[in-house]
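Letters spell out the chain; the tokens describe the backbone. To illustrate:

===
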Amino acid sequence: MATLNLTKELELLVADIVRVMPEFGHIDPQRVLVCIAPTRSGGIHGTYARIHPLRFEGGSRTVTVRRRGKVLRCEIPPVMSRGVEVLYIICFLVPRFLNLSLREKLVTVFHELFHIAPDFSGDIRRFPGKNYAHGSSRKRFNELMEKLVGTYLERVGSAEGFRFLDGDMETIRARYGTVVGKKMAAPRVRYSVEGG
């Protein structure tokens, strides 16, 4: 029985999505780090994945904020992978993510990729208004992801590139025996007092 390297397979899937779908053509898969994190429960309620942008708004490496009368300089430490600086970390929460239907898993992958800024600056895609992450309607955001997944499925015509996602965690474990993946916590923002 083969071991499923979930991180590696998801990285190949991301690269294929970027290749096939012009809406994601701005993404450099080498600068997107895919990892997994455990969830306490295997149920499908809760968060399935998270994206961690490694730059601030507009792609800035630093930002200043005022807290308790002090001006703080915030900086996200650089993350390197395979000799390249990573701009995004996408973390899939297992087993919750793997217990979704195949289509819901693909929608989740597309959802996280769509958060990547169109200029690939390390920041997230920002919509106008206070709900800048998903725009004025999360429902419309999710409908767009469904549509993009449908287009992708039509274009690839085969499930070969994502067959590893077919079934729930129990089914996938029965097929592969062991499921492994890269684990990494998002880097913590470093704070320093400006002028201090």
Observations:
- The beta strands are 3-5, 32-38, 49-53, 62-67, 70-75, 79-81, 84-86, 88-94, 178-180, 190-193.
- The chain has one domain: 3-193.
- Residues 3-193 form one domain.
